Please model this.
Amino acid sequence: MVASFHPPKPLPADPLGQRLCALFGRQTWDFIEAPTPDPGEKAQWKTVKDYPLRPRVLWQKWQNPNQLVGVRFTDQTLYALLDMDAEGPWCSAEAIAAIRAALETIGITRTLLLRSSFSNGLHLYIPLPEAISTFDLAVTLQECLKAQGLAIAKGQLEIFPNVKTYGVERIIHYNGHRLPLQPGTGSCLLDEGLNPISDSLERFFWLWDGAAAHQDTDELRHALKIGRDNHRKRKRESRRPTGNRVEAWQQDMEMEIEEGWTGHGQTNHLLKVIACHGHVFLELEGDDLIAHTLATATHLSGYQQYCRHQHDIRVRVRAWCRAVQNYYWPLGGESKRDTRKVCPPTPSINDQRAEDARQRIQAAMQALQTKDALPPTPKKRATAIAAEAGISSKTLYRSENLKLWHPEHCLELPAPLEKCKPTESASISALHSSVKPAPIRSLKQRNSKEVYTSERFMKCKPNFEASSEVRKEEKERNRGVRGDVSCFPQP
Model:
């Protein structure tokens, strides 16, 4: 058997095109495209499933100012992307600073900020030094931002790659995103003050390489493992430290805090340890935890010499305290991540409309009774209630609504019947007395095993004896040639 070999697709001649295809052209199928919209309008994206996006075609589409192109993720990725809509609450310099501080808690220390288009939306790219699991990165970014109180919502703050379900019967792709810095789209690089600095693809890749080289890969790998484990929703009891493990955990943290900084790149780790120790073992929360973490960190040995975040140490302390309080709890307290709690199901829109109709019918009944304007007959009553409640007759005559207003169905309700009386003068006892109970049928077994039609349902009185004799004669006459001897063949 000869193994199949798929030769690599031809790359563009331009080195920048080669780099663009190597980074964003890993998933060739199900790419997205759209005509370039006018300023102020949204792009009308569509997914192309008929053919794959080859590298040279990708580079050609990227250079076309009249067409937008976007790609999707594979199972391994070299980057991630956060999309902040211009009309959302996260499209500001202060919000970007908070998001970057949150990302540093999982080892992402460098990002690239771009304006996505003339719509003034923002894209925050996260370059990575090596390919990692796309799904692990998606769940880790989601948990990281949620721990900082950053609400993830479509049209406001979106994560690419997104957390998707696993397709069993069909393939489910990650969401697609547009490519950066396409000519004629208004996409450009921004500084920390959201000011444009360049739209050069060469400058973009130069900054990309520098950012990828400065990521804290050890911290990121650790965060990826935690993010995937939390997404699997394992029971908290299997991971809760007990007995001697609690004491060992406390001693390890106190030892690390006492030793302080011994080199560069230790700020995030030490801030996490200090905040975790203060929240779990000292039971500090809120502003007290922030003050304790800030005072402890700034007085540790090596802080002045090795900490490179002294200018924004307060921002980083607040970010770590928020994250710690969402993932840990004081020793002996209640778990904050109990996945066994089941939320009550939210009623569907049809259930809500049905309940609203029932309430309006009841309100209309009460209003008509108060005004002594409730008709006694079903047809007139339905017309009056429909006009009073503002609903259709079809809704009134549904089986679940008949008992609320119909004179014949109201009697079946065990609830008080004052709301369902046909006339004002008729009382409940009078209504019950007017209804004749059905005769009780005898449960005694009949002597005859033959069943006849009840006499009251027949137009004439049958002669049962004559009928039985006729049936007997017909049975004897139509007996056939079967014979009376049980043998084979019969004569």
User: Anything to note?
Assistant: The first helix runs from residue 15 to 24.
